[in-house]
Amino acid sequence: MKYHHGNLKENLIEQASIACEEFGWENISLRNLAKQLEVSQTAPYRHFETKEDLLAEVAAKGFRMMNDDMNKASNFLENGLAYCDFALKYQNTYDLMFGSYLGSFTQYPILMDASLTVFITLEKNLKDHFINLGHDDVSKEIIDEKAISVWAFMHGIVGILRKTERASKNDLTNENPIKIMINLSTNNWDKYIEKSINNILSI
User: Fold this and answer.
1) Residue 40 contacts by C-beta under 8 Å, 6 or more apart in sequence?
2) Span 106-138, pLDDT tens digits
């Protein structure tokens, strides 16, 4: 096959992103992507030296998508809900973004920048939240600490929600924390998120 110029790099990232959700990032290969895009087996290596370099781009795209969703939120609570919605809709991409496979983000500048953008958005929206409440003197240190705490809380909630998706309600006792989370996710879930975030943000 003849190597095609044009937008091969972008097409590889797009195709890999689709494959990530359909089959899992573990099953992606540059050679299979080349076959799907009808280019030579060596063509993808002109843009990505390794599979990891391509997957870093897929993860970075995931962070940009998450950031776009968070920017659409009208208040800070909706930021948290947007985070959850993304994580549950794009579970394989989310695992790639936050898993250990790619190692340190410092190895991939584009991934570092994309993830930092999400945190900056979280910080900005949190600062606006405090200002709207009349707290316009909150220090950056406190905002950073609260932003990290909220991110950690949402990340944990996502993990529990994904467990509840796989759990059978009939197999759980009333005392089981997963059963409690199932009940929360079907009854007043937004209220629970709002109450928990407000507790984290109290100053």
Assistant:
1) 1, 2, 3, 34
2) 999 999 999 999 999 999 999 999 999 899 899
- Separation in Å, CA 18 to CA 75, 91, 112: 30, 12, 22
Contacts of 114 by beta carbon, 8 Å cutoff, 6+ apart:
59, 60, 61, 63, 64, 67
Residue-by-residue DSSP string for 79-147? HHHHHHHHHHHSHHHHHHHHSSTT--GGG-HHHHHHHHHHHHHHHHHHHHHHHHTT-TT--HHHHHHHH
Q: How many H-runs (helices) and E-runs (strands) does the chain carry?
A: 9, 0
What is the rounded (10 degree) CA torsion for 60, 62, 65, 67?
Answer: -70
- In the numeric block, which tokens belong to residue 19? 């494959």
**For the chain, how many residues are written?**
203
pTM for the full model? Answer: 0.84
Provide the percentage of residues in the chain whose pLDDT is more than 90.
58
Q: CATH assignment of 1-49?
A: 1.10.10.60
Q: Helices 140-166 and 91-98 sit at what angle, rounded to 10 degrees?
A: 130
Q: What are phi and psi of 84, to 5 degrees?
A: -60, -45
